[in-house]
What we know:
Elements: H1 2-18, E1 22-27, E2 35-43, E3 53-57, E4 70-71, E5 78-84, E6 87-93, E7 103-112, E8 118-120, E9 123-127, E10 133-138, E11 142-144, E12 151-156, E13 160-162, E14 167-174, E15 189-192, E16 197-198, E17 209-216, E18 220-223, E19 225-229, E20 232-235, E21 239-242, E22 246-251, E23 258-259, E24 264-272, E25 286-288, E26 294-296, E27 311-318, E28 322-325, E29 328-331, E30 334-337, E31 341-344, E32 350-353, E33 359-360, E34 365-372, E35 390-393, E36 399-400, E37 411-418, E38 422-425, E39 427-430, E40 436-438, E41 442-445, E42 451-454, E43 470-473
Parallel strand pairs: 13-21, 23-31, 33-41
Antiparallel strand pairs: 1-2, 2-7, 3-6, 3-9, 4-7, 5-6, 8-11, 9-10, 12-14, 14-17, 15-19, 16-17, 18-21, 19-20, 22-24, 24-27, 25-29, 26-27, 28-31, 29-30, 32-34, 34-37, 35-39, 36-37, 38-41, 39-40, 42-43
Amino acid sequence: MYKKSVLVFSLLLWTNLFAQVTVNVTPANSTAGNATIHTVSFTSTVSLPGDGQIVLVYPSGFDLSSILVVSSPSMDGSLSYSVSGDSVILTRTGGTAQTPGDLEIVRLANVTNAPLASNYQLTLRIKNNAGTILESGVSSSFSILPGPLDHFSVVLTGSSMIAGTPFDATITAQDAFNNTVTVFNATADLSDLTGTLSPLQTTSFTSGVWSGKLTVRKTTSSNTITARAQGKAGTSNNFQVLPTILGTFTFDPILSPQIAGKAFSIKITAKDTLGNVKTDYTGNASLSEKTTTLEVEATGTNQTPSFTLGTWTGNILITQASKDIQITATGSGKTGVSGFFNVDPGPVDHFAILSIGDQSAGVPFPITVIALDLNENVVTNFSGPLCRVNLAHTGVGTLTPSQSGNFFNGVWTGNVTISRTQTGDRITVNDGAGHTGQSSPFNVVASTVDHFVISSISTQTAGVGFSVSVRAEDKENNLVTGFNGNASL
Length: 489
């Protein structure tokens, strides 16, 4: 008898454990995060006690804390409820037992849907008043759907892009809970902080997602991309845009004129092929210009030191004066030229006198005096009434005039005369301010015969021969050594 009772109890327990209630859940509004009415319908294989409990166990994410009303059109008696975590416990009072197989309906007002759009299942348990589970079951799946468009998620591949090089981007239309709004199939307008983004509009989204290539042409240390559509927007994380390959060198404007031999500052910038500063260029550049006298002060050559963050600023000097100079920078196979500027001569440092051939005493001959700076440039602004030099010579006799005429554009040409014959004479000049000059040596020879001079003759005896000395002289009384003719006495 004992064994039979045990067997009957075991069979009943085994049957209850496998009993499954059929459950369906229907939200009045399936939008993620919305508070709505949930209708739970179920069919039990056991009798639902009039004083029993129905326990609804929601999956994680549903907010049950604000449930306001629980009702059932299919059950008599009263129905009270309480909430414990993810469970709603419904307690029947004063009702009759429900017949197995009957469709039962329970409505819960103000259930807040889970924020994550997905498919969910609810667990339902039927208990007697002692808390024993009589039957349980899992609902068929019910869907929580994305809400309306709230913003865009903009995801880029990497945090460093290369200017002008396409990179991958994925833009997702999302609701307020970051669910993909799969019904969004429109386009979105695009922009970035540099104003050089392309394209500026996506093609149509597919199921709420767009993936494609974007390009930014301007370098920056901090950029973002924003997508906009239907009054909503979304912005990517910050990313930097780095320069592409070296394209050229540019110069900041150079003041004009500069002074020959005087150092002045220039700034050279390495640019990529899109005109961005090539901040990773740390090479140098060779500088050249038409006078071939350029020198970089820091190196003593035409080579700059290394660039820093794509730029070099330093002093150079050009010793030869010239108009319309352009500097060319060459480095890593690329070049760039400056704007035009002039290099003017420096102040007067000394004077030069053009070569003078042999001259005749007393005969005016032309000389040319040139005002030069320290680097042998003609000082063209040494010109006008106050620009004269004193004239002298190193030999004997008189040089006239003793002062030049007015210089014009750094040059004076005029006639001078030296009265005495001599060899190795030099003309000297000075401006009275410590600036001097000297010609190369030249000879002064006698001019043409102007008269004869007979040496003094003492008293002589008639009819007796005596000697005389006759000198052929020029007008300055110099002996005309080249005269080999006869003179009539």
